[in-house]
Amino acid sequence: MSNNMSTESPFVRLQNIIKEKNTRIILSCDVTTMADLCYFADLCGPYICVLKVHTDIIEDFSVEMMLNIKNIAKVHRFLLMEDRKFGDIGYTLSKQLTGFFKYSQWCDLVTAYPYIGQTGIELFKLNNIGVFLLAELSINEGQILPYKELFNKKENTPHPICGTIGQNNTGYIQATPGIHLDKCNDNSNQCYKSPSEAKQKGADLFIVGRAIYTAKNPLEAMIRYHKAAMDL
Ligand code: 6AU
User: Fold this and answer.
1) How far, in Å, is the centroid of ligand 1 from the Cα of 203?
2) Ligand 1 surroundings by CB, under 6 angstroms
3) DSSP string spanning 104-150?
4) Full-prediction pTM beyond 0.90?
């Protein structure tokens, strides 16, 4: 079975969801069990446009449960993003899409390094999966990556390249990770900023993780970040 029988591109679906639900939050749900992922998908689903996952940190990953989460995504209207940061040659990428995690069955969006080149972009297009290209990491030693060349090819925008993951005005739709209202770093060099600081540096979408799913009251935190991003 291949992903997304929908004829609409992930770009169009994402834009429609952002408008209809009035949300600019991508929940980065970096939990380690499928039960927790299901729980947060349902709890936060109404407030987000995308649920971003790192499937390779989930200890009991199952495709069947992931397809259940896809159903939750249909109910609450959000897209599923795999934050694998793909960066390999076409042959390996195509094996990864159909391998253990079966991304091709449930993924709407992925993150990828620009090094995948046009070959990689075409592969995601074939699977109707939208790509957010890494422009710069949210760590102190983050460097600007060569994402512009792929973007500037007319045939790549708005589909399959839907946007960038970046910190400083990438010039395209920009999803910014490293968002927190109460902290400025973690213990691993993550650089946090508030939604309004991120907005000043070009953010259109805000990727929020631990600030929500490790909060004492995650629903309250979800609503707080949703509002903070909308009030800008
Ligand atoms: O809010 P946090 O710090 O709990 O989670 C941030 C999430 C993590 C990172 O793997 C991811 O965002 N991320 C990315 C992405 C989305 O590609 C890039 C980056 O530069 N920094 C970053 O934190 O899932």
Assistant:
1) 14
2) 28, 30, 54, 83, 111, 137-138, 165, 177-178, 190, 207-211
3) HHH-SEEEE-GGGHHHHHHHHHHTT-EEEEE---SBTT----S-HHH
4) yes
Name the percent of the chain in helix, strand, coil, to the closest 5. Answer: 45, 20, 40
Which residue's C-alpha comes closest to atom 2 of ligand 1?
209
Lowest mean pLDDT among 27-31, 64-68, 87-91, 138-142: 138-142
pLDDT digit string (tens) for 9-45? Answer: 999 999 999 999 999 999 999 999 999 999 999 999 9
- Tell me how far apart the alpha carbons of residues 24 and 178 are, in angstroms, rounded to a whole number: 15
Q: Of 85, 125, 148, 201, which residue is the catalytic one?
A: 85
Strand-pairing partners, residue 123, are none
Confidence of residue 1 (pLDDT cuts 50, 70, 90): very low
Catalytic residue list contains 85: yes
Give the distance (Å) from ligand 1 centre to CA of residue 24. 16
Which residue lies with its CA nearest to atom 18 of ligand 1? 137
Rounded Cα distance, 195 and 219, in Å = 18
How far does residue 150's CA lie from ligand 1's centre (Å)? 22
155: pLDDT confidence band, cut at 50, 70 and 90?
confident
